[in-house]
């Protein structure tokens, strides 16, 4: 009997072809990322910083910096610094707190200063949530022994240090379901944090430049999964994205001055840092 293709057959074939093409692209991107030759620097035992400019990741060019902190060795040195009603550059806050490494933290009020989402530092509430947002659905919480990334406010309520931001990117090594919107789907500079076994991962991806185009949050989640992380959350990005390393200064390329240099820092309300 002669087979006669139907409209349903052709539709199914198109879906299958698209799925296979997307899977192939993801596999290629995974290979590109996992085989990248990083410029690596050991800052001290259990603390490393590495950088790479990857020319064909998700069909784009990306400048990525990663700091990896062994929490068994340095967990007690992890801190938040926060301004309740003002703003300052990440590098200035980092230097004033004698940080060896630092990244910008959560979302903030660009006019009046202070975080727009809940933040607590050393048992002191610095800012409460101004307007609840579906974007801010994840907490970074830590004390001298534990570091968590969680969506459960009751689980982390007793921790002395809490930063609300988001959205959540990974939970138990699975990518979070992200709503379709411009913030999530468009490519921007990104700052994010993740847990990988006994290590804390601080990451920046630069953007808004031909030398680094930035990532969507789905692409960022995939990078964390390929890097072997279990839990991950997004932080404030865009012009705020900044990574500081002592004796190096700002090591990424902040975009607020629209130049691909180290001078385009935006003043922020809070940072995550490691005491030197």
Q: Write the H/E string, N to C.
A: HEEEHEEHEEEEEHEEEHEEHEEEEE
- Helicity range of the residues? 10-25%
In terms of DSSP E residues, the strand content is: 35-45%
Strand line-up of the largest beta sheet: 1-2-3-15-14-16-12-13
Mind telling me the C-alpha Rg?
A: 20 Å
Q: What do the pLDDT scores average to?
A: 93
Q: Based on helices, strands and strand pairing, what is the structural class?
A: alpha+beta
Report how far apart the termini are: 77 Å
Q: In terms of per-residue confidence, which ranges show pLDDT below 50 for 5 or more consecutive residues?
A: none
Shape: globular
Q: How many runs of DSSP E, i.e. beta strands?
A: 20
Q: How many structural domains in the coordinates? A: 2
Keywords: Glycosidase, Hydrolase, Signal
Organism: Sphingobacterium tabacisoli
GO molecular function: hydrolase activity, acting on glycosyl bonds
Protein name: Phosphodiester glycosidase family protein
Structure overview:
Helix content is 21%, strand content 36%. The protein is of the alpha+beta class. The protein has two domains: 1-35; 38-275, no CATH class. The protein has an eight-stranded antiparallel beta sheet. Strands 4-20-6-17-18 form a five-stranded antiparallel beta sheet, covered by helices on one side. Strands 8-7-11-9-10 form a five-stranded antiparallel beta sheet. The model has no long low-confidence stretch (mean pLDDT 93). Residues 1-25 form the signal peptide. Keywords: Glycosidase, Hydrolase, Signal. Residues 97-274 form the Phosphodiester glycosidase domain. It comes from Sphingobacterium tabacisoli. This is Phosphodiester glycosidase family protein.
């Amino acid at each position: 009997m002669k087979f006669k293709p139907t409209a349903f057959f052709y539709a199914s074939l198109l879906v299958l072809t698209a799925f296979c093409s997307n899977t192939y692209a993801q596999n290629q991107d995974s290979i590109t990322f996992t085989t990248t030759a990083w410029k690596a620097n050991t800052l001290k035992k259990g603390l490393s910083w590495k950088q790479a400019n990857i020319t064909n990741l998700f069909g784009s060019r990306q400048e990525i910096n990663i700091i990896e902190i062994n929490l068994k060795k340095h967990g007690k040195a992890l801190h938040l610094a926060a301004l309740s009603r003002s703003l300052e550059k990440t590098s200035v806050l980092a230097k004033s707190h004698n940080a060896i490494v630092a990244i910008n933290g959560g979302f903030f009020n660009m006019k009046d200063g202070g975080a727009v989402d809940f933040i607590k530092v050393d048992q002191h509430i610095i800012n409460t949530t101004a307007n609840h947002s579906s974007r801010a659905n994840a907490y970074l919480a830590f004390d001298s022994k534990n570091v968590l990334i969680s969506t459960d406010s009751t689980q982390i309520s007793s921790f002395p240090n809490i930063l609300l931001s988001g959205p959540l990117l990974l939970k138990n090594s699975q990518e979070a379901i992200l709503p379709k919107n411009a913030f999530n789907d468009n490519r921007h500079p990104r700052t994010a944090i993740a847990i990988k076994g006994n290590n804390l991962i601080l990451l920046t991806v630069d953007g808004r430049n031909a030398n680094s185009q930035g990532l969507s949050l789905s692409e960022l989640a995939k990078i964390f999964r390929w890097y072997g992380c279990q839990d991950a959350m997004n932080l404030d990005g865009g012009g705020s994205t900044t990574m500081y390393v002592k004796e190096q200064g700002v090591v990424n390329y902040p975009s607020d001055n629209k130049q691909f240099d180290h001078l385009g820092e935006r003043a922020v309300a809070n940072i995550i840092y490691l005491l030197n």
